[in-house]
Design brief:
- It is a single chain.
- By secondary structure, the protein is of the alpha/beta class.
- Helix content is about 35%, strand content about 20%.
- The chain has 13 helices and 17 strands.
- It has helices at about 20-30, 75-85, 105-115, 130-135, 155-165, 200-205, 255-270, 285-295, 315-325, 350-360, 365-380, 420-430, 450-455, and strands at about 10-15, 45-50, 55-60, 90-95, 120-125, 145-150, 185-195, 225-230, 235-240, 270-275, 300-305, 335-340, 385, 390, 390-400, 405-410, 440-445.
- It has a six-stranded mixed sheet with strand order 2-3-1-4-5-6, sandwiched between helices. The chain has a six-stranded mixed sheet with strand order 8-9-7-10-11-12, sandwiched between helices. Strands 15-16-17 form a three-stranded mixed sheet.
- A hairpin with a 2-residue loop joins strand 8 (about 225-230) and strand 9 (about 235-240).
Length: about 450
């Protein structure tokens, strides 16, 4: 796994609640990481690109450094942060100037000195003269001159950007590629589902590294975490999201922010992998998420995780297929992939299914083919009577793809019943091989030019 460009890596590190995520958002120039007064909100590494004094960098926000046993949640969070530090070209070590130097600050400053990585010491929350005076205490950490700033209020950020740019290795000289040589952007993929369905374990398996914090505790992922996978078929930008529970059960403000980030990631994706725990079958919340994917017009792949733990696989698969068929008729033919993210069995089939779903989502049908099929569909099943008169549908065209969207023209076409639209959608899906993808039909009525004169 890496990004599409070899950018210098800047890692923000420090104990919990010193303002690392606020600083990350300030440097990337948008609210990308979740921020809360509750300590320990950040659990997984959050990445983003920032332009700092003319230098583009890959900025990484990490979980708070804490002393903990390796097999605990906080131990796994620390291991993830240490992994980020190991690849850093520059580490921004944050302390809370208002709190002063804590034993944890001193402990991790000593650890950083042994890592052989350039470190810039930041005394955050140093608003005003009192904060600047308090920042001087940070000299005792042995990491050089502390830079006083306030990420929340933007004080000292311009100086920080200059310091970062000065301390980074020289940028490699490279000619910009010609426009025809520029690669297309990566395929945008979001992994969504209920808590504890195995989304983060799946992402780790796809990347081949322990990028996300995983464990038996439900709801470990709190923010939408984006990484780029260099796949042989082309780069894929994958976003792992927080588990989405029923709205009535979402009570805390932090979880509401997590769910909002998940929904936003879904809306920005091209293909969505809806991950289910196969041992539990399809729940109503899974169907609600699937309906949201359809409403947003995204391609979808149904991922049945923990397949190795399913006893009667044939019965389970049939039960899931029946539930999908009856509850998600608008996504008929949705591709289904079975695997175990924990062991890796079957995971290799997921990305090919994603790419096929992406191709269907981008499909276009020529106007000639479309209208030959349309004429046959009208002959097989005539449009219904509306107010005693039959609707006259004249021709059809595809307005766009992503998802496939068709326009039907005809006299009073806008009055076409939903049942007939479903008949046409099913025909389109079967004839032009559009399984699983949302299909949109828009109606354009033609006005009778003599209608007004007749009414007079």
């Amino acid at each position: 796994m890496n990004t599409s460009e070899n950018l210098p890596v800047v890692v923000i590190a420090g104990r919990p609640n010193v303002g690392k995520s606020t600083l990350f958002n300030r440097l990337v120039g948008r609210r990308q990481a979740l921020v809360s007064d509750m300590p320990g909100v950040t659990r997984d590494r959050k990445e983003g690109e920032a332009m700092l004094r003319g230098r583009r960098v890959r900025l990484i926000d990490t979980a708070g450094l804490e002393e903990a046993a390796p097999d605990t949640l906080f131990g796994r969070m620390r291991a993830s942060s240490e992994s980020a530090v190991a690849q850093a070209d520059l580490v921004l070590f944050c302390i809370d100037a208002r709190a002063g130097i804590t034993p944890a600050d001193a402990h991790f400053a000593a650890w950083l000195r042994r890592q052989d990585r350039p470190v810039l010491l930041l005394a955050n929350k140093a608003e005003g003269q009192a904060g600047t005076d308090a920042a001087l205490e940070a000299y005792s950490l042995g990491l050089g001159t502390p830079l006083a700033l306030s990420a929340e209020h933007g004080e000292g950020i311009a100086d920080l950007m200059g310091e970062i740019a000065d301390r980074l290795p020289d940028a490699p000289r490279a000619q910009a590629p010609h426009s025809e040589d520029r690669p297309e952007g990566p395929l945008r993929l979001a992994i969504v589902g209920r808590p504890n369905a195995g989304k983060s374990t799946l992402l780790n398996r796809l990347l081949g590294e322990e990028r996300m914090i995983t464990g038996p505790e439900p709801g470990l992922t709190r923010d939408a975490i984006s990484v780029v996978l260099d796949d042989p078929g082309g780069p894929i930008q994958i976003v792992d999201t927080a588990g989405m529970r029923k709205r009535a059960r979402v009570e805390q403000s932090l979880e509401r922010m997590s769910v909002s980030a998940s929904i936003e990631a879904l809306k920005m994706a091209e293909v969505v992998v809806l991950t289910l725990d196969a041992t539990l079958g399809v729940h109503e919340q899974d169907l609600q998420i699937a309906r949201l994917i359809e409403r947003e017009g995204r391609a979808c792949v149904l991922a049945l995780n923990k397949w190795d733990a399913v006893e009667d696989r044939a019965k389970t698969r049939q039960a899931i297929a029946d539930r999908i068929e009856t509850s998600l008729a608008q996504m008929r033919g949705i591709p289904v992939v079975t695997f175990s993210a924990m062991t890796g069995a079957g995971v290799k089939h997921l990305l090919p299914a994603v790419r096929r779903a992406h191709e269907v989502w981008n499909a276009r049908v020529t106007t000639g083919e479309l209208n030959r099929w349309f004429e046959g569909a009208l002959e097989r099943h005539q449009p219904p009577l509306v107010d005693g008169r039959r609707l006259k549908l004249r021709y059809m065209t595809q307005a766009k793809s992503r998802p496939p969207t068709f326009i039907i023209f005809g006299t009073r076409a806008e009055m076409l019943p939903d049942s007939y639209k479903r008949y046409l959608v099913n025909g389109l899906r079967e004839t032009f091989h559009l399984p699983g993808t949302p299909i949109r039909i828009q109606l354009r009525g033609t006005k009778n030019p003599y209608a007004e004169n007749t009414e007079r």
